[in-house]
Specification:
228 residues; alpha/beta; Rossmann fold; 6-stranded mixed sheet; 4-stranded antiparallel sheet; 7 helices; 32% helix; globular
Length: 228
């Protein structure tokens, strides 16, 4: 599903964020990406949805090399990748329903399909009753659930979550994990960058640890492995 071959990333200021990354993520896997601050986790994640372009190497998502992708083709490929951000990135002047629907409107789905799909994912994240609410009327956990609904409404095979529980209290964070697990159970590949030691150590999945821009540990049912 995802393959990274000899991926390097050096920023214009000379900082080397990724240093020869090689990894392969199977269809249907749930993978945690961990490591200390400044280790290269964010760059690793951002390269997976072409927010950042690697300096060298290839990143294949379902056979498409993101490193060679022309700018005009990026939006089309991103339709296959759902992205969940730590800070939600909701559109403040749109309702919950409209925020989620927006992802389908840009690909010109029919109004009937949009209504059906949006209601389905709002049911999944348990926010059907908040469909007409605006983001500032929601709690942080509810906003994150809207963000997740938006990321999966077009049924992407890959969901990338960048610190999705980082701004949430522990109880709310576990609720978000339940939703991500449900998405994974339905067949999506989930890659999640996190600093949450309790989640990683309790819900054991594959763990990829990054330090100094390199993968230093890759283990099935691994542990967080760092002090927080």
């Amino acid at each position: 599903m995802i393959e990274m071959k000899d991926v390097w990333k050096t920023y214009p200021n000379g900082v080397m964020a990724l240093n020869g990354i090689d990894t392969y993520i199977e269809k249907g896997e749930f993978v945690y990406v961990v490591g200390p601050s400044g280790a290269g986790k964010s760059t690793f994640i951002k390269c997976m949805y072409r927010e950042e372009k690697p300096t060298k190497g290839s990143i294949l998502i379902q056979g498409t090399d993101l490193a060679k992708l022309r700018e005009r083709n990026i939006p089309k490929v991103r339709r296959k990748i759902g992205v969940v951000f730590q800070d939600f990135k909701l559109l403040p002047k749109l309702t919950v329903f409209e925020n989620v629907a927006f992802a389908l409107e840009v690909i010109e789905e029919s109004p009937r399909t949009i209504r059906k799909r949006v209601n389905e994912v709002l049911d999944l994240v348990k926010l059907r009753d908040k469909a007409k609410s605006f983001p500032d009327e929601l709690s942080g956990g509810e906003q994150q659930r809207v963000s997740i609904a938006r990321s999966i409404v077009n049924r992407p095979p890959v969901v990338i979550a960048d610190e999705p529980t980082g701004n949430l209290d522990p109880e709310t964070a576990w609720g978000i994990m339940d939703i991500l697990q449900e998405i994974n159970d339905r067949g999506a590949t989930v890659v999640m960058a996190t600093h949450n030691k309790d989640i990683v150590n309790t819900r054991k999945k594959r763990v990829i640890a990054i330090e100094g821009g390199r993968i230093v540990r890759d283990e099935q049912k691994g542990e967080y492995g760092y002090e927080v």
